[in-house]
Every structure is written in structure tokens, then in C-alpha cells.
Fold these 2 entries.
Entry 1:
Amino acid sequence: MYADLIILGGGPAGLTAGLYAARARINVLLLEKGSPGGQMAATELVDNYPGQPEPILGFELAQRMETQARKFGLEIQNAAVSFVTKIDSGFELSCDSGIVYSCRALILATGANPVKLGIPGELQLAGRGVSYCAVCDGPFFRDVEVAVIGGGDSAVEEALYLCRFASKVHLVHRRDKLRAVKEIQERAFAEPKLTIHWNHVPEEIIGEFDVKALRIRSTLDGSLSELSIGGVFFYVGIKPTNEPFIDLIETDQRGFVMTDENMATAFPGIFAAGDVRVKNLRQISTAVGDGAIAAYSAQHYLESH
Ligand code: NAP
């Protein structure tokens, strides 16, 4: 299957690139392996997206972006692309299913996924008390004590969300200061159900068939203690989804895609937008900006090649 422009990934960056490309009447196709929305769709409430004075469900914002892009004629197909190769006329995208797509220009908007710490018990108990998505799994922990690992925006925001269900939420953070933005911190400090374990890291998740406890270690004196909890939510950062095209493009040490200010990678015809890109601020609003610029740059590339 051929399109002049293929957008890989249907989060806010991909959907915005799709909206702009469709409006520019480019022959464009967006490929998404799950349902459109990316991490935005798995976020409980979004309260910092401009033009939206009341908090909006991440899922609803995702649906609105998809509806708007489709309204302008964007075609979205469900496809898990496993590798991208360069061909004479552009690029070929091969899927696990055997389907092969081709295009002349490509926008990488594959986003990023939660980092796994790999501590004992984490993999074994994934889906049985270990989770990376409070919005998806939070309601299963009604009246249960849970732990959240991390001190960034995601950890603190999702810990606050879990306070709606859990009897108590333990936030385990390796330093004595949160990385999360001040407004989120203020809400955390005011939440009676939330206890912060400063200067601690998770050591082991205890439980045979489900989570029974979390062993944590002090980063100050190495002492160990145990929290009796039924669930652990990890929010220790994100890593870029770059596997299908890692051999084609230049990345930083962490694997995020390098682009210039026009979202162009060093590889002619390949652009990148959103969380997969090297950038300082990963937000829905910055992903949207990237998407618009990437579509504009791809349009110029297509017109001049
Ligand atoms: P993040 O900002 O990278 O924070 C990761 C947290 O995990 C940090 O507190 C870090 O500790 C901790 N951590 C990392 N490695 C660890 C380890 N090995 N052991 C223990 N703790 C560890 O990641 P994020 O919170 O997922 O956010 C990702 C991006 O999305 C950020 O740019 C963020 O601003 C954005 N975001 C924004 C919002 C919002 O605006 N509402 C919501 C969610 C996410 P240190 O602090 O010590 O490094």
C-alpha cells in the first residue's frame, strides 16, 4: 500500500501532523498499532492544554483530535510496523502481519513508553499488582494501599489520581525533592492519603501470585524497610519507541531522535515529532506544535523532490 506521506504513530504529534497534512491535501496515511491517542489517552485528566479551561479526560482529548483529523480526510490504519527500510523511491514499512507500506516521506511520531526498573518481582508480577498505568488499573485497587515509584510529573500526578481509590498511597522517591512541576507538588503536599518516602528506592516486590509488599532501601544509609501494599505503579521515566527505524536515523545516547527546528532528521525525507524526539519539554502542547511543523516540512520536501 502506498501514500506520499506516512505518519508512524497516532498520539498528539501524529494526529496533528495528520490533520495538517490532510488539510494541505497531501496523500497521507497514519499508521497506529493500538488505538489513537498514545500516552495522552492513558492520562486521567489534562489541565494544561491551552483553550481548555476545565480539565479534560486524556481519552476524550484524544478522541477529539482523532475526530478532527479524520474530518479533514486523514486515513488511519491499524498496523504494527516492525521495520523501516530505504528504497529508491522513498521508504518501505514492513509489518508483523506481512503487509508492506511504502511512501516518499515519513514522519516518526511513535512516542515513548514507560521505563522498567527490572527489580526482582517487577516482571513476574506485571499485571498482578505491578502496573505502569494508573488510569487503566487504579480502580482495581479500591481500599487497598499502593505504592508509586518516581518523583516526576507522571508519578505525582498519578499518585494523586490513585488517592481516589486506594486507602493510602506511598510515593517512593530517590531524592529529597520532587521533579514534578510546583502546582502538582502543592496538590501532593495537601493530599492526606499521600505519604512521601523521601530518599528511598524500590528494592524488591514481594509476593508469589500477587503483590503483598514492597521492600525499599534508603539512599542515605542503605537501611531496608517494607511497605505492606497490594499494588505498585512505576513512573520512573520514559524511553523512546525507536526500534523500527533505529538503524536509519541519528539518536542521542538515550535513543531519542535528533531533529533540527523543522523536525527534519539527518536522513532526507524522514521527520520526527513529539516525545520520540530529543527535546526539553514533553507535553501534549509541544507534541502538537512538533506535529504541525513536521507536516509542513514534509509537504515542502514532497513538493521539492
Ligand atoms: P521524568 O520527568 O523523567 O521523571 C522520572 C522520575 O523517576 C524522576 O523523579 C526520577 O528521579 C525517577 N527515576 C528515574 N530513574 C529512577 C530509578 N532508577 N530509580 C528510582 N527513581 C528513578 O518522567 P515522567 O514523569 O514520566 O515525565 C516524562 C515527561 O512527560 C516529562 O517531560 C514530564 O514533564 C511530562 N509530563 C507532563 C505532565 C503534565 O504536565 N501534567 C504529566 C506527565 C508527564 P529524579 O527526579 O531523581 O531524576
Entry 2:
Amino acid sequence: MDHNVYVTGPIPELALADLSRHCSQLDIGPAGSTATRDVLLAGLAGRDAVLCSIRDRMDAQAIQAVGPSCQVLASFGVGVDHIDLEAARSRGIVVTNTPGVLTDATADLTWALILATARQITQGDRFARSGRWEGWEPLQMLGLDITNKTLGIVGAGRIGTAVGLRSVGFRMKICYVGHRASAELDAVGADRVDLRQCLAEADFVTLHMPLTDDTRHLVGEVELGQMKASAILINTARGPVVDEKALIVALSEGQIAGAGLDVYEREPAIPEELAKLENVVCLPHLGSATIETRLKMGQIAVANLLAVLSGKAPINPV
Ligand code: DGY
């Protein structure tokens, strides 16, 4: 095939190899902070297809920049809140994503945050290395039990369900909020409840919904106030589903016990007031970051892109 494709930044080599066999021109944008807006806009121009990721703001201006030949925007990831879907649709550009393959990695990381916040893993690591540890103490660094507690899942899609199924080994009671009943969660005895009940009953509240106009600031001052003072909030979904200012107040004033965060309102910025809180574990958006998962994401993004360029139906149209 004779295609001109732009990949906005480095992705796993094996996935790129599949792509390069089908392109007459393939350019890869820079990694990290060198990927400025101007570099992105210049790289997009005149392409038949673009493989982008959640770090690229594919708004109307960017979609305008790709030009009339572009047939497909294949996103490396499941969330598509970085893409102006209406602008793409109006230009006849197909948008695809990579659902499914990152479910387990993201559910695993959610559990890493549950365990880390409940048992003070990151604080303990810092303390153990500090040279200040003087030996075992009955009252040292006491965390919270997880076993037999209540897990509240907000958003019972693929990832929320996978998080819930992992809680069975901890003999947890599960309540969940979802547009539809989840047969898999129901099968392990979960209760479908409304948001208020979920927040009020759960010892761990974990968020798993896409970012949309309806979910932006879904968890704000009022909702944080409905949680138990002993509860922990986990967010591996999208930062803006939580009102970060309200969260900082709730954490600083002890309205809730802690938070485990993989995502932030204005990534990569993490507010200083949040970063300095001891009852928060902060990760740099690592949900899908395993070698195996990122390779599968790359391969699926490439397969979607090539399907559209060869006139076939995309595997994962958005
Ligand atoms: C996604 O895919 O939406 C994640 O946030 C990044 O893997």
C-alpha cells in the first residue's frame, strides 16, 4: 500500500513494524515534552491516517490540520475525550480506539492503588529508606483492613467489572453504579445502587467511567461529603471526573481518609497542595502501562488504521 501516515509519538517497535510494511511514508513524532502543539500540527498535515494518543489534543484545529486526505484517526488507548468526535465526523474521518486489551492492566493498577493507600505502601517505603526507622512498634504506620470491607464501583463497564471481580479474594461486599446491571458483578453478589448510596456505604470508592459532559466533576464537594470519613477514593479513569479543588479540601480536612490517583484534572500538572498530602498516592497515569498491554494497544491501533486505509470496516470504531 502506498500510504502517508503520521504516528504522533513513539509506540512499541513491533506495532510500528506492522505499520511500516504498508506505508510509503511513515513519520513518528517526538516523545514527551518536545511534542509541542506546533510540532503536532505540522506533523499532521497532509496525512492519509494518523495514529494519536491521549496526550494529543485532537480538537477542531488539529483535525483541520490533517487536511482532506485523512481517512482515519486511530487512537492508542480506550478513552477518546482528547478527540473532537464531532469535528472528525463532519470531515468524514473514522475514529477508532483500543478497548478491551487494557482492561486487566488498568484493573490491576487500581488494586495497586487500593492496597497502597490502605496500607501506606508509599509512605512506608519512604520511611524505610529514610534511616529514621528505629524498629517495630505496635502503633507504627497503621493502615486499614481491606478484607471484608465494602468496595464501591462507579462505572461498571469492562474495567469497573474487572476491578470488582478481583475483590472476591478479599471477601468484599460490592456495590456498584452503572447505566445497566452487570451480570458478572451480580453473579458475585454485588448490589446495583445509586451514586449516593454507593458513596455512603463504600470503604473504597473506585471510579471507572469515561469523561463526558455528564461525568465531568461527577465527584465534587457534595459527593465527597457523602463518603465515610474513613473511606478512600481511587481514580484511574479521568482526572476531570473529580473536582480536584474539592478533593484537596476533603483530604486536607479529613472528610475522607485518603485517595489513590492515577489521573488529574490538568495532566501533567499535579497541584502542589495535592502532591504534598501524605494521605494520597499519586501515579503518573500508568493504568495501561505494561509491556504486554502497550504492545497490544499498538497492534490494535495499527490494525484499525490499516483496515480503514484498505477500505475495510474498522475493528473498533468509536
Ligand atoms: C486510555 O487508554 O484511555 C488510558 O487512559 C491510557 O491508556
